[in-house]
Amino acid sequence: MFSPVQFNQLTLKNRVVMAPMTRARNENGIPNEKNALYYAQRSEAGLIVSEGSPISTTAAGVLYIPGLYTQEQVEGWKLVTKAVHEKGSKMFAQLWHVGRVSHISNQPNRQAPVGASDIQAANSYAFGYDENGKEGFVICSKPRALETAEVKQVVQDFAHAAANAIEAGFDGIELHGANGYLIEQFLNPAINNRQDEYGGSIENRVRFLLEAIDACIDKIGADKVAIRLTPYGGLHELPLYDEIDATYQYIAEELNKRGIVYIHIMDQQSRGSFALPEGFLEKFRTWYKGIIILAGGMTREKSETLINAGTIDLAGFGEDFIANPDLVYRLENKLPLTPPNRDLHYGLTDKGYIDWKTWNEMTQEEQAALEAGNYRK
Predict the structure, then answer these.
(1) Which residues lie below 8 Å from residue 32, measured CB to CB, with a gap of 6+?
(2) What separation in angstroms does the CA of 229 have from each of 5, 267, 319?
(3) Which of 65, 153, 201, 372 is the most buried (most CB within 10 A)?
């Protein structure tokens, strides 16, 4: 887990991945020096996947997040990738379109969000402005279903953002096909009620995902393209359906043909949703021969067991990286982890962002309190 590894063109100093996490620290949507410091602090990871970055003005469902669709954003991200590369880590950009998981305050001219259909995520929240102009979590607005031609434009938006990511110095891109956002909205037949070429059969529901993958491959090459998926995920009101295994087997086999760099699977049990069924990962490994990353509730022990069994290749850690910038060091040395403070996950302050201490920066009193389970930021 802590040794260097090479997968074709991708050489990593260890098998630990920092998973993508929204932090909402960019008031103008342009990355800056503080973002560069945040990621550099966590560059013990072999691979860092950036926070989800919107691919267009209509792709966001959270305030204060850095995008990848303007030249100013590209220039800002260059600060981040340079800082990470100087520490010897690789970095992929996660490309994000939230679809219906948005609010009119996140959209241009307060227009309706767009989705695979007009079915509202009426019990889910975006991070936007309420009717009084106060920021916070607000119920997702009713979406408008994308027209067929608009779907094809979103595909091109993904490709444009992918090219921008490479210009910004990223080593590759990861499409956000998870967590109930736009790509997964197309996959799920309970949400996708379309009558065009993007609805109905498994092949049609997967078409948008594959077209986005193919457009990105055309722009930057298959060895720089990856995707995140959440099979059996239920976040943002995506119900389970009968064809889940068949759907993800088709996805895996199609992506196998394309030779993309990896598939990043998230087990949403740690997010209060459905767990991956027993044996699913082992089945998925027979369908997909490339690199598999697993995130969600990972520990050193679980990671090593799955890596040694050949079920996965890399272990993804999310929230643990927030409060433990030296997470790799702590895992390797079996040191206690600083608990996160979720009240500090979002917001425009430095507190809870770039001020977390490494183990070696802590006083002996702080280390003792952490070992006793009494330390909290």
Answers:
(1) 26, 76, 79
(2) 23, 9, 18
(3) 65
Closest to 52 (Cα-Cα) out of 168, 151, 178, 139: 178
Are 7 and 313 spatial neighbours (Cβ–Cβ below 8 Å)?
A: yes
Within 8 A by CB and 6+ apart from 287, the residues are 248, 249, 252, 253, 256
Catalytic residue among 69, 181, 198, 250: 181
For residues 228 and 266, the answer to whether their CB atoms sit within 8 Å is: yes
Both tokens of 272, joined, read 């209060």
Beta carbons within 10 angstroms of residue 104's beta carbon: 18
Grouping H, G, I as helix, E, B as strand and the rest as coil, residue 365 is helix
Taking each continuous run of H as one helix and of E as one strand, the counts in the chain are 11, 14
Strand positions, DSSP E, the chain: 5-7, 10-12, 16-18, 47-54, 90-96, 114-115, 125-129, 135-139, 144-145, 172-177, 225-229, 262-266, 291-295, 314-317
How far is residue 189's CA from residue 337's CA, in Å, rounded to a whole number?
40
Count of positions (residues) in the chain: 377
CA 219-227-297 angle, 5° bins = 155
Amino acid, single-letter form, for residue 116: A
CA-CA distance, 30 to 10, in Å (whole number)?
28
Tell me the pLDDT tens digit for each residue of 231-290: 998 999 999 999 999 999 999 999 999 999 999 999 988 777 788 999 999 999 999 999
Q: How far apart are CA 207 and CA 174, in angstroms?
A: 17
pTM of the model: 0.97
- Of residues 202, 281, 216, the one with CA closest to residue 244: 202
